[in-house]
Amino acid sequence: MTNLxxxxxxxxxxxxxxxxxxxxxIAFKQSHTVIQVTGFFMMCAVVLAMWFVRDxxxxxxxxxxxxxxxxxLFTGLIIFSVLVVGLLSYIYFEEREENPKEYYILLFLATLxxxxxxxxxxxxxxxxxxxxxxxxxxxLIAYLRNRNNAIEAGVKYLMLAALTSAFLLFGMALIYMETxxxxxxxxxxxxxxxxxxxxxxxxxxxxxxxxxxxxxLVPFHLWAADVYQGAxxxxxxxxxxxxxxxxxxxxxxxxxxxxxxxNALAVTVLTVIAIACMxxxxxxxxxxxxxxxxxxxSSIAHFGxxxxxxxxxxxxxxxxxxxLLAYSITLLSAFGIITLLSTRRKDADELSGYRGLFxxxxxxxxxxxxxxxxxxxxxxxxxxxxxxxxxxxxxxxxMWLLAVVLVLTSVIGLYYYLRIISTxxxxxxxxxxKEKSLHPLFYAATxxxxxxxxxxxxxxxxxxGFIIDNVQEFLVIR
Amino acid sequence: MLIEKYxxxxxxxxxxxxxxxxxxxxxxxxxMCIELMLNAVNLLLVAFSKMHHAAAVAKGATAGIEGQLFxxxxxxxxxxxxxxxxxxxxxxxRNTHSVDxxxxxxxxx
Lengths: 478, 109
Hints:
- With 478 residues, chain A is mostly helical.
- Chain A has one domain (3-476).
- Helices cover 77% and strands 1% of the residues of chain A.
- Chain A is built from 20 helices and 2 strands.
- Chain A has helices at 3-8, 10-27, 32-52, 69-94, 102-119, 123-141, 148-179, 184-194, 198-214, 222-230, 233-258, 264-286, 291-311, 316-341, 357-360, 362-376, 383-396, 400-424, 440-462, 465-476; strands spanning 59-61, 65-67.
- A two-stranded antiparallel ribbon of chain A has the order 1-2.
- Chain B has helices spanning 3-23, 27-58, 66-96.
- Chain B is elongated, with a radius of gyration of 19 Å.
- Classes of the chains: A mainly alpha (478), B mainly alpha (109).
- At the A-B interface, helix 6, helix 7 and helix 10 of A face helix 1, helix 2 and helix 3 of B.
């Protein structure tokens, strides 16, 4: 391994160090605040390291890893999301749990797993990254062990994730048998030479099952609503953003390497999955009274939209990245509001609890409203240009059926997002506001970051050109 | 030895695992069945690795040990998964005094 290769991996090493640093801080009995602040600065150090190594890209680290523009984009998205999730975690765990410190080890390890997924180009690094992510997630979901629902969500996720990783491995073994290699590009070369066999297609199918589970695509979405509801609010935000971004990144890289878009059967199956996601996600969300479950179904629908960009092949990658950026900012601000409103005993997930929020706390209601409008894809918020770009590439690739379903289901989606917004502005019930006992500085920090997210949403909605140009510039680095 | 026989054995083990996961309600037995599925994959990988290695040696090249390497990674990861998983199952037992997954129905639909 040369110096330049080591240098290209610097951000990932800093990320791995972050988890070790937190372990050491706990060993020296530091307080939650110290750990939180150190974790924040470590994540900033990862961003700095990424800025520092930008000129050495793209760099292959054979046989396992490749650091290129695509990896840099997705890793940046992941680190950005973790910064916000970390901030939300402080006020959430400080008042709930006597031992909130080990949470940060798990959080950084899961982040490392997602980041490794973005740079992997080999089945071994794919598997290791995925398991690093999911084993940490089992513990994160069940972290508040005194609440029954957290354990239930944890066991459900554990059983299904372990089952799907067995499917993933079986698929990898079948592909290995057919091609004699585990490297994505070598697999691509082998199948262009010899064509695809039945066992190879079975292998691809099993891998798609595993990826579909992680992304909560229909029909592998059954865990999503329960886990979103049972997990602590910041962890739900983590599952909805970081874990899905990492898995989507490796899916994009794998599909590009093995030319998945030229295989008619795979394209048909993915098209059916995309349509099922858009319809099922939006229809199931219609009657939901629980905000966390509603966001789970809405994220199923959003990944249906994202699959439209995915199916467009190389042209759709830029639109997909922009969509993921808009989606992460939106979901993080929505979960930020849920975190702020949660009490010691339970998360604020009942829709009735949001009745008249505007009259109690106008700022929170404003942030939540902008986030919901962005999820619905209303102009002047980030959700609109994101959906517009996806629709554009879809139409350019003549995927009329997907484009029509996308537009129609977006209209259905509008209904339940607007229903929440109308609840926010309804007349409030006569309940006294709950007093919180934490240091106001952390509330100020959380509010500030949420307001920044809200302005980011508006900025992306009005001037998307700047970001999309930068994304395209990064995607050329390969 | 024909490679098909290994494939049939691995698929049989894998299917026994799937049936176990779907049919049994005891969390620990479900976990054992998942381990069975992982070990079916290990068997398959070692067999394929041997096959590719033999083919490469016949051509005078060296290749085909990736599969055997992967098996070690799978074993390590499976051990990590079991330790976290059993910890969660113990917490479940403390809360519900049972390891029956049918008790897990409090999250509403």
